[in-house]
Amino acid sequence: MAFVMPLVFSVWNALLNNFVVEKAQFSGAEIGLLQSFREVPGFLAFTAVFLLLVIKEQTLALVALAVMCIGVAITGWLPFEIGLYCTTVLMSIGFHYFETINQSLTLQWIHKDKTAHFMGIQLAVKSFASLLAYASIWVLMEWFEVTYSSVYMLAGGVGLLIVYLLWTNFDSFSHGSPQHKHMFLRRRYWLYYALVFFSGARRQIFMVFASFMMVEKFGYSVGDISLLFIINYVINLLFAPKIGKWISRIGERRALTIEYMGLLIVFISYALVTDGRIAAALYIIDHLFFAMAIAVKTYFQKIADQKDFASTAGVSFTINHIAAVVIPALLGIVWLTSPSLVFYIGSGFAICSLLLALNIPNTPSQGNEVVKNPFFRANQIQANKNT
Questions:
Q1: Is residue 280 part of a domain?
Q2: What percent of the chain has pLDDT over 90?
Q3: What is the Cα–Cα distance from 8 to 90, expressed in whole angstroms?
Q4: 158: helix, strand or coil
Q5: 0.85 cut: is pTM over it?
Q6: pLDDT digits (tens, 9 = 90+) for 224-237
Q7: CA separation (Å) from 198 to 13, 38, 202?
Q8: What is the DSSP annotation of 48-113?
Q9: Domain range for residue 368?
Q10: Residue 355 covered by a domain
Q11: Rounded to whole angstroms, how far apart are CA atoms 337 and 280?
Q12: 3-state class (DSSP) for residue 368
């Protein structure tokens, strides 16, 4: 399942900016609105927990994957504004329901001491699938001039075939602890909720506007974008498992502090960049930093009750998408007058995330979820050392 999702989604994502500009004459305002519509199902991801009353998590994951594949397959046949909004929402429903269940199952099935490394391996598998998708796009569209609609149909059809094979060839696995099937917010998870919220806000800057800048400002073609994504995923394929091990070794607090400091520099650089090659380098670095977001999930696994995984996965996706639903549309309007300001706003999100990360204990666990005053604690530790 970790393979088929990015295989299909990467085709949709890689073609999107060029497709909407060339076929539907989108500007920054329309692409921002489309991305906001795409995030609405993510905002409603908490409803997945109610579906678990009548369907098993593993089955729901496969159904969600099938829905995503159908949405991608029909995208090329509706190259106008309303049609693109509708296919995007259909694809997004499958994508976000799958991602919600995927996170829950991973946290349930994998022991917490191995989760970071395992998620790194998952990222490598996803990177291989994305790499295969982008390479296929480059070959099909640059060498053989295959149409957008044909590539979308091919991706969705292959995805549906793989989902069918997963459905028929794998048993139903046990889930460990029975999961709560109702919605709740726990006060002791507040730091996790806050980290997830700002993660969603920052992710929109990267996914929507950084890639759109490559096409609009620097004139990147479909082939150029595909090659850029290929480089990103080769790096993830090689380094994601190592990043997972590294997070296990240094801890979530240090890993996230490094990530957010790096993202702050990257976003400011986006606002100032005038060379397409430098922008591409920033995009690659940006993508590498986001691999370190594994630490947010492993932090939650260490502080949470196992029975909370499924419900909290849905809640966290909703929190993640509160900002994601609003930000693309609002910043799409800002983009029309000042693209640089969009990235300065992104740097503000990175600063907020950095301040939150300083509240993570060095060894998080149930009952030790938050450092009450990280600045005081750091000064006290230094004073003790000096003493």
A1: yes
A2: 40
A3: 14
A4: helix
A5: no
A6: 877 887 788 788 88
A7: 22, 18, 6
A8: HHHHTTTS-HHHHHHHHHHHHHHHHHTGGG--SHHHHHHHHHHHHHHHHHHHHHHHHHHHHHS-TT
A9: 4-170+182-380
A10: yes
A11: 23
A12: strand
